[in-house]
Amino acid sequence: MNLNTNDIVIIGDIKKASKVIFWFHGYGSNNWSFEPIMKMINMQMNDEVCVIMPNAPLVDNKRSWYPLPMTSENGLIIEDDKGLETSKAEISRFINSFTLKKGQDVIVGGFSQGAALSLSMLFNTSHNFYGCIALSGYMPSADYYKDSTIKNSRIFIAHGFSDQAISFDDYKKTYEFLCSKTRDIVSYTGDFGHTVTKDVSNKVSEWLSK
Prior knowledge:
This protein is of the alpha/beta class. It has helices at residues 35-44, 81-96, 113-120, 142-145, 168-179, 198-209, and strands spanning 8-11, 19-24, 49-54, 58-59, 62-63, 70-71, 77-78, 105-111, 131-135, 154-160, 185-190. It is globular, with a radius of gyration of 16 Å. The chain starts with 7 loop residues before the first strand and ends with a helix. 33% of the residues are buried.
């Protein structure tokens, strides 16, 4: 995976922000789709955050952060663990390309596939992330990371009961997996689908404020 470092959206002032969020969009989407939501969150945070949003590379004319799971002939889901790790290495290089001040809280987050990528970034990493925001996502390659630990990262996870893209059952499995790795996790669920509602964005701002 090769990221175009010129194809990014930055909201806020990285030099003044107390928190820097690296935000990853969903599969087939783009970074501009989250500009209004992130501007609102930044405003609610009194411009204390800087949000950096890259675009995923195009794969078969769809933007994708890592290889999608495949289904075998007998119906088993096969995940590309090595492909995910390769993508994470590129994301790590992207994060390291920014000069951050000592004391700034670095957060990874995203929606759908971007949320899954962000959760995976907590494992097998040299980064000391302050936290992770995972909206309508899932834990990718859970079996691969089952014996791995995460550093002292805070996690905010949100999911809708009516999500048709990533089921609520997938959320429950993800939540149980994360609870086995950390106690510092905040979960928000509600009667919504595969989207980010105003309530969800407000909950994100509340979590960031704390």
